[in-house]
Amino acid sequence: MLKIKNLKAKVIENDDLILKGINLSVNKGEVHAIMGPNGSGKSTLANVLAGRPDYEITEGEVKFESKIINNLPPDERSHLGIFLAFQYPSEIPGVRSFQMLKASIDAKKEYFKEKKLTVREFSKIYDQKVKDIGIDIDLTKRSLNFGFSGGEKKKNEILQLSVLEPRLAILDETDSGLDVDALREVSEGVNSMLSKDRSFIIVTHYQRILNYITPDFVHILIDGKIVKSGNKELALDIENNGYEKIISEVSN
Amino acid sequence: MSYTKSLNKFNNIYNKNIILNDDIKKIKQNAWDLFNKTGLPPSMHTTELWKYTNFSDLKKLDFDNSHKTNFVVKDKLNILKDDQWNNIFIINGFFDKSQSNYSKEIIVENFSNLNKLKYLIKKIGSIADDAENEFISLNSSLMQDPVFISIDNENIEKNINIVMITVDQDSNFCNFPRVFVEAKSKTNSTVVETYVNLADTESKNLTVPVIEYLLEEESKLSHKHIQLDTGKSFLFHFDRILQNKNSSFNSTSYSNAGLLSRYDIHSNLNGIDSDCNFHGLYITDKNEQQENEISITHSVPKCSSDQMFKGILAGESKAVFSGKVLVKKDAQKTKAFQKDLNFLLSKKAEVYTKPSLEIYADDVICSHGATAGNMDTNMLFYLQSRGINEDEATSMLIRGFAQEIIEEFDDEIIISFLEKILNSKIKTLDIEGII
User: Fold this and answer.
1) B interface mutation test: which of A47, A92, A96, A160 has the most B CBs within 10 A?
2) Minimal-distance CA residue of chain B relative to A80
3) Which residue from A87, A109, B109, B280 lies 20 to 30 Å from B70 (Cα-Cα)?
4) Which residues are paired to A57 by β-bridges?
5) Rounded to an integer, what distance in angstroms lies between the CA atom of residue B124 and that of residue B109?
6) Mutate to test the interface with A, among B376, B386, B396 (most CBs of A within 10 A)
7) What is the dihedral of CA B230, B213, B106, B73, to 10 degrees?
8) How far apart are CA B148 and CA B155, in angstroms?
9) Other CB atoms closer than 10 Å to residue A210's CB: what's the count?
10) Contacts of B404 in chain A (CB under 8 A)
11) B399 in contact with A at a CB cutoff of 8 Å?
């Protein structure tokens, strides 16, 4: 589904590479966790995959379902089925969740030259998802993410994930800033979206979200490179011994 | 441009202006004497009030006010109206009674047909002071057909819709709509005030509307001001409000800028327990200039006021926001807030924002603030990552910024009218190269 080959990337205004040659393959239905210390390039990888214009790919390629997407704008990546759950979702004045998601679905239908949903048809789907994720209906009437708590913002990301039904969902430190209850709720939302046709990349600093969402693979990203891959035991190892051990293994 | 020449251009107009009513004649004469002392405001940067206004184009032009029109309001899509409303059309400064329609809930008379509202003649100029502003005295000098509206029914359910239209004339045209609105004690009403320039020729017009509002005790007036399609015209629009005890004036404004347009609104809170809100949205593009002169005087204790304006600026346009609050010595327990937020969509657009508080009382709660920001790339990427392309995401963010004010119009017909206007305006905005 996703094949990343020797991916190198940097911030546009800066010459220093942040991603220094990433290789990663994610097959249909797999859950991959990407772990790493602060500044290792985890969030950059998530954002580069989603097409954030602040970054520039200098080398390598990202292939999504056999299409090279290096130069595709973010909206087109979304149509193809890539979804990024943001670490810090933007607060957007005057734009409501329903309105944005209706526009998202409309744009996707247009891209594939399919018939658009009527407001009523979309409303039915939307209301059901709001209920399933357990979002306070009053929140959905506000401007997007405005006055939302950290937990509510992340739940709202999961709502978008569940409405947009992507092929590949990238969760960028979705667990950060969540208390235990919120983490459990958000994880349940993610788990309800697991399917044999949908893949996940879970970017995280801590192992704790992996107590709720079981990864098939765990990759350790240090200084812009994946230095070690393994199964969920690797995440536990990090939890017990920190990143220091791996860093010293690598540098030796 | 010499001072004399700037008067000459209006001299002819004043001289051929024949109004028979003695009271009005006197008002005009006094105003003309005043205007002759001042002339048009001096060039920019010489006075605080006109610091950013460039009059050189205006001063070069000659104007005529010969009014001939067979303009038909009906079926014109870009005029805000509804058959169910009380519609009052003022075309080129003249009240058009045959095309207006209003119920018996209100009394509307113009100067040639004064009957029940004769007493209001004496009140013209009592709220909009000729000595205060050059354009107010110019309006008082050259107004041709003042309109009087009296609201005396406790609950007027239908909007009172005052539509001022400038339509094509053979030459550069000037017109001076004048309205006096009296909201009697305990009344509750909505007044919509629209200005639209429908002249489609190359001629440049000057329009100076002056609207006076007298709010008697315990009256509530919801005011909606809409400025559209000013195009190549010069517009100086004045709203002057006098509020008596326990009255409420709640105003929401929408302005599409023109070559040079100024919206100037002032309320004098002159009766305790009164409140006044001035909220508004202005949009400027290309080489347009929109000025907002928003001021409130707290003359007595226990009143509250709130100013909140938002600006969307594109192209090489300029906007000026001057928000003033004057709290007089006796006006204790005043609450006054003001804010001006600007969204700059172009590197060449400029906003001069100057919120000011002048406070002589000691027991008051006041605040003010202003911001100017560019397109937020995080927000833009957020929407794009949800499948919304850059252009659509950009207009979604602009609409979102405007939404708060648009919703305050609190009237389905007006909101859907303005949403259409706003959407088509956004499509033509010059926002190249902001991201």
Assistant:
1) A92
2) B387
3) B109
4) A9
5) 14
6) B386
7) -10
8) 19
9) 23
10) 93-94
11) yes
B179 neighbors B146 (Cβ within 8 angstroms): yes
What is the arithmetic mean of pLDDT over B402-412?
96
Across the A:B interface, residue pairs with CB atoms under 8 Å apart total 84
Beta bridge partners of residue B148, listed in sequence order: B109, B180
Q: What is the mean pLDDT of residues B42-48?
A: 76
Beta-carbon separation of B396 and A50 below 8 A = no
The structure's pTM equals 0.92
At B414, phi and psi to the nearest 5?
-65, -45
Contact A51 B384 (CB under 8 A): yes
Secondary structure class of B67 (helix, strand, coil): coil
Interface contact A94-B382, CB threshold 8 A: no
Chain B within 8 Å of A86 (Cβ-Cβ)? yes
Judge: B392–A83 Cβ closer than 8 Å, yes or no.
Answer: no
> Cα–Cα distance between B67 and A212 in angstroms, integer?
78
pLDDT tens sequence across B117-162? 999 998 999 999 999 999 999 999 999 899 999 999 888 889 999 9
Read off the amino acid at residue B57.
Answer: D
Give the span between the Cα atoms of B326 and A103, in whole angstroms: 46
